Amino acid sequence: MNLNFSQYVHELRTPLNSILLLSRLMAENPDENLNEDQVESAKVIQSSGTSLLTLIDEILDLAK
């Protein structure tokens, strides 16, 4: 059962890592094409996503 549970948790990490990457790029705003509210929203997404990733990693550690 732990193997299946670990696989499910891993499946959560894959899309979350994509969200974190995109939100980081948006927060950096290298082309300066986003307004302040959009950049701030990207930072909130990144912060929340990082917290969620930490939680997922802790759950994965507990499943081992």
Automatic annotation (TrEMBL):
Looking at the keywords, is Secreted present? no
EC class = transferase
Q: Which UniProt keywords apply?
A: Kinase, Transferase, Two-component regulatory system
Q: Where is the Signal transduction histidine kinase dimerisation/phosphoacceptor domain?
A: 1-64
**EC number per UniProt:** 2.7.13.3
What the entry lists under InterPro entries is as follows:
HisK_dim/P_dom, HisK_dim/P_sf, Sensor_HK_Regulatory
A GO molecular function term, named singly, is:
phosphorelay sensor kinase activity
Catalysed reactions, as listed in the record: ATP + protein L-histidine = ADP + protein N-phospho-L-histidine
What the entry lists under Pfam families is as follows: HisKA
What is the recorded name of this protein?
Answer: histidine kinase
